[in-house]
Amino acid sequence: MALKSFDKDNELSTKWSDDADMVYPKIFGDIDHIDFMDFNTAEGKAAQLAGIDKKLYMKDGRLIKIDEKTHRDSSALVIEFWSDINTGKQGWLYTSTADYISQIEPRQDKMLIVSMNTIREYARTHINEFKAQNRMRWQESTRNGRTWKSGHINVSEKELMDWSNKTVGIEKPVIKPLHDYK
Questions:
Q1: Residue ranges covered by each domain of the chain
Q2: Which pTM value belongs to this model?
């Protein structure tokens, strides 16, 4: 198992985060402004620990909380069940207070937007299948000299879209180009 650098991944995700800001209005409508939750401020740190990377303040008064993920090597949605298996800390699937996961896929120049309710329902209805298929994957990460082991399931976009198209009462995932070349 290769050791992953949290800070290096975070640097790369920040690079594509501004591009994502151009896509959000196409999905959610008119945005008044976007606040990035800076981990170096008290408010930002609290928000980040709650799984919120950005707050979208909509012109109609809604507040939409986004947890941004960046995956360079895969178009699979990585659903984190365990943040740190050694300490028993649950992953963002259970702890995030975000309304949506925004997965940025720079190599494929696209974004996948999925509501947390949809992800949680998908995981709830598939947990026994995941266990039977032994789909849990483990990743060791390091930051500031601390190492932890997280557990996640990779779910392909096709798998998620096929399920959502057959499921009544959920918000459907959206896939949009990261850059508009028109």
A1: 3-177
A2: 0.85
